[in-house]
Write a structure and sequence with these properties.
Helix 2 packs parallel to helix 3 and helix 5 runs parallel beside helix 6. With about 250 residues, the chain is of the alpha/beta class. The strands form 2 sheets. Strands 5-4-2-3-7-8-9-10-11-12 form a 10-stranded mixed beta sheet, with helices on one face. A two-stranded antiparallel ribbon has the order 1-6. Strand 8, helix 3 and strand 9 form a beta-alpha-beta unit. It starts with a strand and ends with a helix. The protein has 8 helices and 12 strands.
Length: about 250
C-alpha cells in the first residue's frame, strides 16, 4: 500500500457516543486494523481485511454506497466534502496504525471543524506523527483485568505526555472484575502526566466476550475511589448502542 493510500471500513454521520463530547454531531472516518484484542471489543470488523468500504450519502440518511480499498488521499477528501461543517472523528480499529497516511493526508484535508482522534493510547511514536494535525485526543487506558491483555503502563504514560499538548481526555472501561490496583495505577499515571484532564469511567457495554453489565454499587465504588485522587472524574456510558445509532 502506498503512503498516500489507506484502508477504510466506513464513513458516516452520527452523534458522538462516548466521552465528554457525547451527543455532538460528527462525521466518522473508521479505519481498518487494530493490533489489540480487548475482550469487550464492539468493532470486530476492524480485525478483518475489507475489499471495499461504505460511505453514507447523504449524511444521516442511513443509505450507503461502496468503494474499493485502498483509497487514495485526494478521492477521500472528495468523499468527505458532504460531511463538512461538523467535527470529524478518526476512529477504528486503531487509526494510529495508519499514522503515516494520516500525517501526510490530514494537512491536505484542511478540515474547518475540530478533528478528534479516538485511540487505544498505546502507540506514542505514531501519535507524535499526527499530534499537530488533530484537535482532540480521546485516549484509552487499558486495564488488564477488563481487557484480558497485558498492561501498557509505559506506553500509556508516553502517549499522554504527547497528547496533553492538545485537548485530551482519558477513558477507562470498567467492569465488575476491575482490579482496584490497576485502576490506582491508571490514576497515578494521569496524576503524574496530566492531572487536570477529564478521567472518564466508561461502564463496559456487553459485547465480544463480555455478557454482563457492571452492577450499580460496583460502579459507584470505582467512582468514589477515583474521585479521592482526581478532580475531574465522570461516569459516561456508551450512548450509541443505547440509542441504536452507528
Amino acid at each position: 500500500m502506498k503512503p498516500m493510500q489507506t484502508n477504510l471500513i466506513e464513513i458516516f454521520s452520527s452523534f458522538q457516543g462516548e466521552g465528554p463530547h457525547v451527543g455532538e454531531p460528527m462525521a466518522f472516518l473508521r479505519l481498518q486494523d487494530c493490533a489489540l484484542s480487548c475482550r469487550f471489543c464492539d468493532t470486530p470488523a476492524s480485525f478483518e481485511r475489507h475489499a471495499r468500504f461504505r460511505v453514507e450519502g447523504p449524511p444521516q440518511s442511513g443509505q450507503f454506497r461502496y468503494f474499493p480499498n485502498p483509497v487514495e488521499g485526494a478521492p477521500l477528501i472528495d468523499l468527505l466534502k458532504p460531511f463538512a461543517g461538523q467535527a470529524l472523528s478518526l476512529t477504528g480499529g486503531e487509526p494510529l496504525q495508519q499514522a503515516d497516511f494520516l500525517a501526510a493526508w490530514l494537512p491536505r484535508l484542511r478540515w474547518s471543524s475540530p478533528v478528534l482522534l479516538e485511540t487505544n493510547g498505546v502507540l506514542p511514536a505514531a501519535l507524535a506523527k499526527v499530534i499537530d494535525f488533530v484537535d482532540i485526543v480521546s485516549m484509552d487506558i487499558k486495564l488488564p483485568s477488563v481487557t484480558g491483555m497485558r498492561p501498557y503502563w509505559k506506553e500509556h504514560a508516553e502517549f499522554l505526555r504527547i497528547a496533553r499538548a492538545k485537548e485530551v481526555y482519558v477513558k477507562v472501561v470498567v467492569s465488575n472484575p476491575t482490579d482496584l490496583s490497576e485502576l490506582k495505577e491508571a490514576i497515578a499515571l494521569v496524576e503524574a502526566e496530566a492531572p487536570g484532564v477529564p478521567f472518564i469511567l466508561q461502564p463496559v457495554t456487553p459485547a465480544g466476550e463480555v455478557r454482563e453489565r457492571i452492577p450499580e454499587e460496583r460502579l459507584k465504588e470505582l467512582y468514589r475511589f477515583s474521585k479521592q485522587h482526581l478532580e475531574d472524574v465522570r461516569v459516561i456510558p456508551q450512548v450509541h448502542p443505547i440509542l441504536g445509532l452507528l
